[in-house]
Design brief:
This protein has a 4-stranded antiparallel sheet with strand order 1-2-3-4, with no helix packed on it. The chain has a 4-stranded antiparallel sheet with strand order 5-6-9-10, with no helix packed on it. Strands 11-12-15-16 form a 4-stranded antiparallel sheet, with no helix packed on it. With 344 residues, the protein is mainly beta. It has 2 domains: 123 residues, Kelch-type beta propeller (Neuraminidase), CATH 2.120.10; 133 residues, Neuraminidase (6 Propeller), CATH 2.120.10. 9% of the residues lie in helices and 41% in strands. It contains 3 helices and 31 strands. The longest helix has 18 residues.
Length: 344
């Protein structure tokens, strides 16, 4: 029995090395146990800042059922060096389809959707134009200049010193048609006062994902007015110009509500069928690099270690999830790693 177990471990080690994954890193990821989210939730905001994982708001009810009781305004954090329990922080307005990003030790909350109907009443959903900054040292929120218009189901990244808001739509309440946004918004975080800059974007999509690498922002998939769209658009912040990238792989439904992150200057995306993909070093094609244990939509993906990512929450199989799943990412092949990474 001992010999058989030893042979199995040797075979596993050989397979892992063949995939280019650090054995020690993979074992550390596998051995890490993280407490589940305080509540099963989807369509929430999440970010990592100074050794803590922060999550805000989200939808905790049945799919497509929105009211003031099942959309949250809670705010929690988890200390990553000692992930024993979630700490409740001062929350704010209930919202889903919002975003959290971090910059220089502070957390920024941008937009979101807020239902204003009680349970059992007809839906009355409104996109928020509110933005706020949380200071972990003070434990307080500061309201910031609002968005030019309400925005939800969008994504937000920080590229260098720029906060970038892409995609989304504006829900205007019961009986009103939504307005699909066709502009990207920019704020220079170095300036003492916020001033929104509007930039035309060559698409109208929501339920999308964005990743910043250097001075470029990759806008990945999403839902267009006529259905899921696997298109990838890349914004160069130095020129303010857009270009096309390779469409997302798999069936078109994979384009709806993906989750993505920057891992060591690599664009990593998680899709509805549970697959994890990486954009190749030349930015021309996608490579499948992993599979999640649980398929889900409207989740969040964040970098974990140099060779793994963290998949959080989301919805799938008719329910919301509270799990945090660590997925190992193989190293780039030696020939590929010697080439240039996606242009920054």
């Amino acid at each position: 029995m001992v010999k058989a177990r030893s042979r199995l471990l040797t075979q596993l080690t050989v397979v892992v090395i063949g995939l280019g994954v650090s054995v020690a890193g993979m074992l550390r990821a596998a051995e890490t146990t993280l407490p589940p989210l305080p509540k099963a939730v989807s369509s929430f905001g999440a970010t990592i800042c100074d050794g803590y994982l922060y999550v805000y708001g989200g939808h905790a009810g049945k799919t497509h059922n929105y009211d003031t009781s099942n959309v949250l305004g809670t705010f929690y954090r988890l200390k990553l060096s000692a992930p024993e329990r979630w700490e409740a922080l001062t929350g704010g307005p209930i919202a889903q389809g919002l975003n959290l990003v971090s910059y220089r030790g502070k957390i920024y909350r941008i937009g979101g959707m807020q239902p204003r109907n009680a349970p059992g009443e007809a839906a009355d959903n409104h996109s928020l134009n509110t933005t706020a900054c949380y200071d972990p040292k003070a434990g307080t929120w500061e309201e910031l200049p609002p968005l030019p218009a309400g925005r939800s189901s969008h994504d937000v990244v920080v590229a260098g010193d720029w906060l970038v808001v892409v995609g989304g739509w504006q829900l205007r309440g019961r009986g009103q048609a939504p307005v699909w946004h066709d502009t990207t918004l920019l704020v220079d975080l170095r300036q003492p006062s916020w001033k929104w800059e509007s930039l035309p974007q060559p698409f109208q999509r929501r339920a999308l994902a964005a990743v910043a690498i250097g001075h470029k922002v990759y806008v990945l998939g999403g839902l267009a007015p006529d259905g899921p769209d696997p298109r990838v658009d890349i914004l160069d912040l130095t020129t303010r110009q857009w270009q096309r990238g390779p469409d997302l792989p798999g069936k078109d439904r994979n384009a709806f509500a993906p989750a993505a992150c920057n891992l060591q200057d690599q664009v990593i995306i998680f899709t509805a069928d549970g697959s994890l993909y990486r954009l190749g070093p030349q930015g021309k094609e996608w490579e499948k690099i992993g599979q999640a244990a649980t398929k889900r939509l409207v989740a969040r993906l964040l970098p974990w270690t140099e060779r793994s990512v963290l998949l959080i929450g989301g919805a799938g199989s008719g329910q919301n999830h509270n799990s945090l799943e660590i997925i190992s990412v193989p190293a780039l092949p030696v020939t590929a790693s010697a080439e240039a990474k996606p242009d920054k």
